[in-house]
Specification:
About 70% of the residues lie in helices and about 5% in strands. The chain has two domains: about 190 residues, no CATH class; about 70 residues, no CATH class. The chain is built from eleven helices and two strands. It comes from Oceanobacillus sojae. InterPro entries: GatZ_KbaZ_carbometab, PTS_IID_man.
């Protein structure tokens, strides 16, 4: 495939990619933003105004994916717009529809559920210790990966073109990376539950002495007993409960759950249960 776009054109794609969500709407979600992002490619590809209008209208259809997945899809779409004939243009939207779901899941797994928790825990640990470096370090590390991946995906996706799709079909690359990212993400979340979420109880059980029969001579700390069975089991129980409620309500009452958790924590702490 002959490459017609210059580095300047790819830079325009990258810059417009970063503002795709400004035009987010309930009808087409990122459809209008995608059309605006790829507009420089369409203007360079179509010299006829009517063909250009049809192409822009075609790219305003429903579209939604992760922002890093947007970079890959935008670049591959640009390559297809250059290399396909008039009868194959409708297949471009099929390509976008087919890619936006898997790449959205891949982006969420790698960025939101893996990289963000990792650097967030690092930044939070430094911040809790009183260091201002924590949030600054998190901001820098996040954008090195986030912005870097977008630009690399634009350049690589355009150069690879259709070959990217063929490679994925042969090796199932996207699915393999997504599975690995999910595993790492679950490990990170599991580690965060035991290190960040602190739920402990000061309750104690007093038992009578086997010799004198007096109450209060032997004291069993419930928290110590639970830690011997499974450390951080209360933290795990709270996490699972909140997750179950959020899943049951589809996250529609997240704010109310936060308020209830705060009130319960205050009440249970006041009565000496937590």
């Amino acid at each position: 495939m002959e490459q017609k776009l210059t580095k300047r054109d790819l830079w325009k794609l990258f810059m417009r990619l970063n503002t795709m969500r400004i035009t987010l709407n309930y009808e087409t979600l990122q459809g209008v933003g995608f059309m605006r992002a790829i507009a420089p490619v369409l203007e360079k590809t179509y010299t006829d105004k009517e063909e250009l209008s049809d192409a822009m209208r075609r790219h305003t259809q429903f579209y939604n994916s992760h922002v890093n997945g947007d970079a890959v899809i935008l670049a591959v779409t640009a390559a297809m717009e250059e290399s396909t004939g008039p009868d194959e243009k409708e297949g471009i939207n099929s390509l976008k529809t087919g890619l936006m779901g898997p790449l959205a899941g891949l982006g969420d797994s790698l960025i939101k559920f893996t990289w963000v928790p990792i650097i967030g825990s690092i930044g939070a640990s430094l911040a809790f210790s009183g260091s201002i470096i924590g949030p600054i370090l998190m901001f820098i590390l996040y954008n090195i990966v986030n912005i870097g991946l977008r630009y690399y995906a634009i350049v690589y996706g355009y150069k690879k073109g259709i070959g990217f799709l063929n490679d994925n079909q042969e090796s199932n690359l996207i699915q393999r990376i997504s599975t690995m990212a999910n595993v790492v993400g679950l490990m990170v979340v599991g580690a965060l539950i035991s290190t960040i979420i602190k739920v402990q109880t000061p309750l104690e059980i007093s038992t009578g002495s086997s010799v004198t029969g007096e109450v209060g001579e032997n004291v069993i700390a419930i928290q110590e007993m639970l830690d011997q069975i499974m450390p951080s089991v209360l933290s795990l129980a709270v996490t699972i409960t909140v997750y179950h409620v959020l899943k049951k309500t589809k996250g529609s009452h997240a704010a109310m759950i936060i308020v209830i958790m705060m009130l319960l924590t205050i009440a249970l702490t006041y009565f000496g249960i937590l």
